[in-house]
Write a structure and sequence with these properties.
By secondary structure, this protein is an all-alpha fold. The protein folds into 2 domains: 80 residues; 55 residues, no CATH class. It is built from 7 helices and no strands. It starts with a helix and ends with a helix.
Length: 137
C-alpha cells in the first residue's frame, strides 16, 4: 500500500504543478512581444488551450485521484477481512440488523468473529458509503 500512497502523493503534486503553470502563464504578454494585427486572436486561443492543458487537466486529475484513493482503501479493507467474500461483506456492512443465526453463519470457519469490528472499520474508512456502492464503482 505504501507504493500506491506514494503514487497518490505524486499525482497530487502533478495536479498542483499544472495549476501553478496556468496561474504563472505569460501568454497575456504576447501582444507586447509580438506585434501583428491579429495577435489578440492567437493570444485568446493560446490562453484557452493552456487552460485546457493545465487547469482542466488538473481538475480531472484531482477527481480521478479521489477515485483511486477510494479504490486503494477498498483494497486495503478487503485485505484486512480477506476471509469474507464480496457477498458476505456486503451483507455485513449494508444490513443494519443481522440476527444471531446470520452472524454465526457469516463467521463460521473464520478467524474474525466480530461483525461489529468489520462494520466499524468500514464506516471509519468510508463514512456512510454502502459496500455495494463502492464494490461496483
Amino acid at each position: 500500500m505504501q507504493e500506491l500512497n506514494e503514487i497518490i502523493k505524486e499525482l497530487r503534486s502533478i495536479s498542483k504543478r499544472l495549476e501553478k503553470l496556468n496561474s504563472e502563464s505569460a501568454i497575456s504578454q504576447l501582444p507586447d512581444t509580438y506585434d501583428f494585427d491579429d495577435i489578440q486572436v492567437y493570444t485568446v486561443k493560446a490562453e484557452n488551450l493552456l487552460l485546457a492543458l493545465t487547469h482542466e487537466t488538473a481538475s480531472q486529475l484531482a477527481f480521478s485521484i479521489i477515485d483511486f484513493e477510494l479504490l486503494v482503501k477498498f483494497i486495503e479493507f478487503r485485505s484486512f477481512f480477506y476471509e469474507f467474500n464480496q457477498e458476505e461483506l456486503q451483507l455485513i456492512i449494508d444490513s443494519d440488523h443481522l440476527n444471531t443465526a446470520q452472524k454465526r453463519n457469516l463467521t463460521q470457519n473464520k478467524k474474525e468473529k466480530d461483525i461489529a469490528k468489520i462494520r466499524t472499520t468500514w464506516f471509519k474508512m468510508f463514512k456512510n458509503k454502502s459496500f455495494k456502492q463502492l464494490s461496483e464503482a
